Amino acid sequence: MTKKLNVFLDMDNTLVDTLPVLDRASALAKDFGVAKPDQIPGIFRSLAPIKGAVAAVNTLAESAELYILTTAPWNNESAWSDKLAWLTEHFGNGPASPFYKKVIMAHTKDVARGKGGILIDDRPYHGAAEWQDDDFKTVWIQYGYDERLTWDRDLPAFLKLVANLAASEDLDAQTAVAAVNERFNYKLRAEEATMQLSDWEK
Q1: Which molecular-function annotations from GO does this UniProt entry contain (predicted)?
Q2: Intra-chain end-to-end CA distance of the chain, in Å
Q3: Which of 136, 194, 198, 147 is nearest to 8 (CA)?
Q4: Is residue 126 within 8 Å of 107, Cβ to Cβ?
Q5: Is 172 a catalytic residue?
Q6: Has residue 192 got a pLDDT over 80?
Q7: Of the listed ranges 9-13, 15-19, 177-181, 188-192, the one predicted with least confidence
Q8: Is residue 133 among the annotated active site residues?
Q9: Catalytic site residue from 10, 38, 110, 121
Q10: Which of 17, 39, 60, 112 would give a disulfide with 76, using CB separation of 3.0 to 4.6 Å?
């Protein structure tokens, strides 16, 4: 059996439309007795998926071995369970789910690089940028940095081509991504690992 390429997916602002809700709720944090909106109990539970994400992920699971690699606010206990509940709602909670027993919550995402593969994450923080690593041959693709690399545009097809090439030629993630991207010349990530923050995040 051909080994599938590992693809790790961030949740917030990559699968889940999180930031607009947190920005709108920033004025309510004090009403809940917390410092930031991401600490409001239950705020991560009922967020909308990013456009096209659910269908694209289910299709991508045919070609790649998918994992969730996400962070959750340390001072919001419900965020951890809410994220699992969100995944169950949108992808199921059994062996047929692409994420069944393949969910990693960590504040330093680079700890998972040893398994190899690609991380899709909108931000460089919490170890995401460190996935662009020549020693591990891993790749960080910054979700949406190239406006074409979104779930409702080119990202699913691009990842499927990469996964199929990696499997057929027994290539590591970096080599496969570079080979496929010669045809498209996508901007895979910002040159500098920085990003504008909302006021409440500073």
Answers
A1: 5'-nucleotidase activity
A2: 48
A3: 136
A4: yes
A5: no
A6: no
A7: 188-192
A8: no
A9: 10
A10: 39
